[in-house]
Amino acid sequence: MNRRRVIIDCDPGIDDSLALMLALSSQELEVAGITIVCGNGPAEMGFSNAKKILSQMGRLDVPVFLGAEHPLKREYVNALDTHGADALGESFLPEAFEGVPQKGAVEFLEKELLQANCSVIALGPLTNLALLIKKNPEAYERMEELVSMGGNFRSHGNCSPVAEYNYWADPDAAALVYETAAKLGKKISMVGLDVTRRIVLTPDLLSYMKRLDRKMGAFVERITKFYFDFHWEWEHLIGCVINDPLAVAYFVDRSLCDGREAYVAVETGGLTLGQSVVDAEGFYRREANAVVMTETDPLRFFQMFFGRILSLKEEQLDLLPDLVRR
Ligand code: BDR
Ligand code: CA
After folding, report:
1. How far is the CA of 315 from the centre of ligand 2 (A)?
2. Is residue 276 helix, strand or coil?
3. For residues 34 and 135, what is the distance between their CA atoms, to the nearest angstrom?
4. Cys-Cys link to 171, which of 72, 107, 274, 305 (CB 3.0-4.6 A)?
């Protein structure tokens, strides 16, 4: 099988962790490394969480690099209210590494992207990629593909009425990444809240997971419990929206999301800070720099997600069609 080489740039993070688990269980991907950006938690916390997930998956061979510790311009605002004090659902898993975190996320991105056909799946604020553009625009240009979990089109925001966290946390970085894509004639796959909001891990799905694989189910329960409580308290939702794994799933299988090409710009100030402005009607007469996802199939997503992280075949997941919210 031709495996696609990919770097996962992320801020783990509960749903980032689930996304890493999916990526590491996907034969189609060769995860060249994990680069960490500050976001849900401070970068060092994200580094430590990435190692914990790698340890759980038996993949401590995958290198992890510490990246930006603050956004380009604005003050850093974490999302520990959503992800818990350890950014991993207050699971307080034991540390999986000793010493000081390995620095050099931007340098690693630069080296890998210049060397080989390599893509990036970005699951956090786009600060590391913006720093890469400033350091070596050619490396960004050579990137095979960029899939970004972030932004929103018709769906409302999750940090303000109009803005999604990853773009809101570092709007200047997001703006630069989209502007540069426009200049280079590239198209970013924007896997935003319009589609990720449909991916709801419910208590029933979690119970099913535990029935199928007690150990893995218990692990997922341990890291998502806080997320469930947060969603109940703030969104009156029984379950939790797991955004980031959909970006990985889409990278593996294009048929999981569908969307429209459009020019996208990100607002860097004022009331609408961080909003992804999608010019769906072509007002600006500019070439598309993104494919904005608007449709997804939650059942097929969960078939992939459960199938892979639990190492089961689709036919062994016979209850999923009754349990997935559509
Ligand atoms: C995004 O923000 C973070 O809290 C999640 O990890 C996800 O990447 C959703 O808005
Ligand atoms: Ca994230």
Report:
1. 31
2. strand
3. 19
4. 274
